[in-house]
Write a structure and sequence with these properties.
The chain has a 7-stranded parallel sheet, sandwiched between helices. The relative contact order is 0.14. The mean pLDDT is about 95. Helix 1 crosses helix 8 and helix 4 runs parallel beside helix 6 (about 140-160). Helix content is about 40%, strand content about 15%. The chain is built from 8 helices and 7 strands; from the N terminus they run βαβαβαβαβααβααβ. The longest helix has 29 residues, at about 90-120. Strand 4 (about 75), helix 4 (about 90-120) and strand 5 (about 125-130) form a beta-alpha-beta unit. It has helices at about 15-20, 35-45, 60-70, 90-120, 130-135, 140-160, 190-195, 205-220; strands at about 5, 25-30, 50, 75, 125-130, 165-175, 230. With about 240 residues, the chain is an alpha/beta fold.
Length: about 240
Amino acid sequence: MADNILITGSSRGIGLCIAKYFVKDFNVYISGRNENKLKELCSEFGFKGYASADLTSDNAAENILAQLNTDIDILINNAGVYYYSPIEKMKFKDVQNSVKINTIAPYELARLTIPYMKRQNWGRIINIGSISGVVGEANASVYTMTKAALIGLTKALALELAQNNITVNIINPGWVDTELINNSSLEENFTKEEILETIPQRRFVTPYEIASACEFLISDKAKTLTGQSINICAGLTLGC
């Protein structure tokens, strides 16, 4: 059984839930920007280690793996950034940051961890995307663009690595019950009640459900499942 799992963007939200879900069975390595927070989480939950890095910086992926100084069997690219704005008001710096965090960082981390996975003839890569990358989202064009690119990367790598016993899949959550949902600034655009009205099941996805899906994709039960885009969205991709 594989031992080492790296989860990016795991100091809170979905990433932290995934990390806590796997800590009993794996050597869990977390990453994020806030080093003090990462230290506290390792102490509190027993994570094996952490890497503090800004994914918008040059060589961020190399920096993360250098800090961890260990081979990675399972990579979960969870870190992401979301900007809600009409395209004409979007700042170019925010566009650049979105591309770096949502697309380039997962690409680079995969590029650097795949050689070890190939040598051992086993590996798992799970990208956390968004249904915005599947169906599009008005006023979130950059987010949609980068998450759609992540779906394309997933498919391409799955084909490239199919004969190396390495699977690559992407989970596309809808609205997940995390800090974002409970952030008062969200109501500048829409309320929680308005969001729920757009979801066929009239409920938010829980981070636990995302973690559970990751568990399945890592397991031998899913060894023939690769290149797949899995929408966990309470029916949101189907319409209201």
